């Protein structure tokens, strides 16, 4: 099963403001291998080669914190209280 | 003088925070637990096998009313190679007798139930609120700043029960950022199957008996990875945790890793015809004893995953979280008697942990994370050799048994080397001494 299909199964309360970002977008341009694009279990990060820019689909984030540990340029916060992922089973 | 809003503020309503809150509330202490989810458990994930004894201590016979799935009667370890599976395990009628050893659980349900018990004991739980930082008065922690308007709250002591993504101990300089070798990423699916099908496939006689399978071996390359399949009443929990450093090194997407596990010939028939109900991910602090932060500060203690209290070899985490929460609460109660919440008094918390099985166990395995970091082949080469040897022994191809043994020994010599085997045995032995 693809990540995209699995994400449909998760409940979210999506905030209009993003809790994820990068401190220096220029670092992404020269980043080796771009680990954020394959390490995230929710496929939040992808690199847009045409725009030469990292795109962050923060709605899908399951708040595991992995990206933050893999890359120090990622500015990571928890979503505001009550927002974000809501598991039924967990 | 500023008045305290609470005697104790606990950050995080997982098993660690809830256990601490329960002990304090039972003693009539004015305690608040702050949780960022809409209810405790809504953001929490575990495999999850829950060991009874630590909670039974607090809430005797809790298992008779808690939302549990099955009690586990059989525990297995599977070693997987590309086309084979080697299995060892224990099924015992002793595990089938009350009060039981462990259960499969869903955290979203279990934590919610536990939180209700804590509320009934008259602790306050403040949901939908993120603690952003600590409030200090000179060198002492005196409260927390939340993301609510006018959201500062004051107390004698703050307990950090925030789980693996904890910020507060770092804020005080009690530890550095965790690194990619100290922490695993776990991904999991809950997949639905009729209970009768589960009973048949896993060889149990009714829908309250359960099986837990732990999975490792050369199928996961040289990755420090551990898969699992646990039976719930009408579903299976299937997942895999892998050290983040290894995922990055091998450029592996965690969902692909889980799909690989689901595709193994030994796993496929277990899950065939099932429907995925939920997908989730969470980190596991696997660094062990040496990765622990300092556990106390003036007006502050750290419990559970925030303190890196996980025994990954035995998949014990939630029970250690509960145990540490209890010790922190008891330490507060003692400190309150003398009215001193300084480091010196709160250091008794560390002592209690050291004297209990929690740190005794973590100490036993203290060198294991480092050993596996340096010798990743230990988790692939030896299981592979074992699987190949077993194959030779069972495969009747008109080669005599004595020739087979020669063949196996030759393989050991060629693929690993006798000298290396002795060296590895010695280093494993030395690391457990
Ligand atoms: C895939 C996987 C499998 C596992 N399998 C097992 C198993 O089979 N058996 C076992 O015993 N253990 C298992 N564990 C480990 C176990 O889940 C943890 O050890 C245990 O949950 C730790 O409890 P805790 O209370 O310390 O933290 P958590 O359960 O993580 O709870 C922390 C709580 O704090 C809240 N929080 C965090 N930060 C803030 C903040 N700033 N403000 C407000 N609220 C906050 C969170 O929302 C959460 O509710 C597993 C873990 C994973 C990821
Ligand atoms: S966020 Fe970090 S890992 Fe991702 S592309 Fe940018 S620098 Fe690289
Ligand atoms: S926290 Fe986890 S799910 Fe969210 S973006 Fe980072 S890696 Fe992806």
From TrEMBL, chain A:
Domain 4Fe-4S ferredoxin-type, chain residue ranges per copy: 18-50, 52-81
PROSITE patterns per record: 4FE4S_FER_2 (PS51379)
InterPro entries linked: 4Fe4S_Fe-S-bd, ETF-QO/FixX_C, Fd_FixX
Keywords for the protein's UniProt record, in alphabetical order: Electron transport, Iron, Iron-sulfur, Metal-binding, Nitrogen fixation, Transport
MF-aspect GO terms: iron ion binding; iron-sulfur cluster binding
Protein family: To ferredoxins from P.putida and C.tartarivorum, ferredoxin I from A.vinelandii, ferredoxin II from D.desulfuricans.
UniProt-recorded name of the protein: Ferredoxin-like protein
Lineage: Bacteria, Pseudomonadati, Thermodesulfobiota, Thermodesulfobiia, Thermodesulfobiales
Automatic annotation (TrEMBL), chain B:
Oxidoreductase keyword on record: yes
GO MF annotation, one: oxidoreductase activity
Secretion signal, residue range per the UniProt entry: none
Recorded superkingdom: Bacteria
Keywords: FAD, Flavoprotein, Oxidoreductase
Cofactor(s) this protein requires: FAD
One Pfam assignment: ETF-QO_FixC_C
Residue span(s) of domain FixC-like C-terminal: 368-432
Assigned protein family: Belongs to the ETF-QO/FixC family.
Protein name from the UniProt record: Electron transfer flavoprotein-quinone oxidoreductase
Species of origin: Thermodesulfobium acidiphilum
